[in-house]
Amino acid sequence: MQRTGVVLFGLAGFFLVFSPRAEGALIGYWPLDATSGNIATNRVPGGTHGVLIGSGVTWLNDAQRGQVLNFGTGSTATNYVDAGILPTIGDGTNFTWSFWAYSQQGVNNNVILGNRYDANAMTGGHWIKFTTSKFEFTTSPQIFLDYADIPQNQWIHHAVVRRGGDKSFTYYRNGVAVLTTNITITTAITGRPFYMGGDKYAEWWQGRMDDVAIWTDALPSNSIAGLASGTYTPLTAPRYPAGTFDLADALGGGDGSLPGTGGPGNLTTVPGVYTTFPNNPFVDGVFAPNTNNVPCVIDGAGHTYDFNAQNNAGNPQTWCNGLNMDTDPSTNLLANFNGDPANHSLISAHASKGITFDLEGVREQTGLSIEKFTACIGDSRPKVNGSISYFVFVDGVLVTNRNAIRDSEDFVSVTQVNKGRYLTIAITDANNDTICDHGYLGDAFLTLIPYTPPEPRKGTAILVR
Q1: How far apart are CA 33 and CA 30, in angstroms?
Q2: 47-99 residue pLDDT tens
């Protein structure tokens, strides 16, 4: 048997390529593009496949959408798709539902997508469903997004986004936000089934459906618009908008947005220990800069640095999202970090301590690339008599620093983060003890830009027979 292959020569060694998970926390994507059978495939690895129930649910080739799922071909068809159980939805929960529907019913309360009753009985007072007249989310309390009635016989893209940070529900039609409401959920919804085209026990809908997807993220409006226009699919829709990523919010366990969803942070440093935070995808670890001749570990790769010349007292503190010092470093010369949290943020940085952010975690969670890191780093002017030194590293390499700052600040911009893995920032006492050394990081932001796949490797191709 003759074999033909291609051998590549001249490649410049191995190199690391960052490939963001653009889909974020996509937990279910059912393209509904099969031609036969009773399984609606879930394209998310490990996700629950849908099972077609009833003879009235069939595969159909639609003139506009191509292969779709058709519901209600019989006059009394009790047909639906069982797609498993939804994650628990509580007050702080994010989620997004997105789908295309071609309704062939008038105004009613039948389930287009979601559920009505419990999974095992025709009981239960908690349900989530799209109908031809409204989106219903019934827990304690209930909410109804009473959108304009869905017209018949036309394809429409629908989405609902729940943001736990501001308690909002937003309904989108054809990529445009048309209704938003804010409500505190006092009773979490658990164990709710997820159906397409009707409930298991009642409220069966008639129409066609395509491209159903659910996330445990609150997708940004540009992603919803892209799903409606065809710019994105559920596999490529980014879960985060390009622009500012706030490291202060990430420090507090938030998603990096402004004004943010994170808490105070309070990540404590320990002398001689690099403390990691495996449950925070954005913060790799914290450390206390050394006060002796033994360099300390500053990132997850094990890089070290000797801070001894600019650090003599130690006094490790906690890293805080917001103000944990007795004076606000903001002045009329600086951004109002505490008074305007919708546009500014503050990381408290009393000497001496260090923190390392995982840039690959940012890329994975947002599906975007990083252009630069910017921040205002300095010594608090209102707290006089103090002094600090600051250090900024990328993958263990010192890229900018300044020693013995007193009552002033620098605006730093670091572009090396565009290909780096670890961004490390340290504040020390400038080797003169820690009294009044109220350093700070104001508006510590990453600038995110759309992800561009790397160019394919180049080499010489030789045909081998």
Answers
A1: 8
A2: 999 999 998 899 999 999 999 999 987 656 789 999 999 998 888 888 999 99
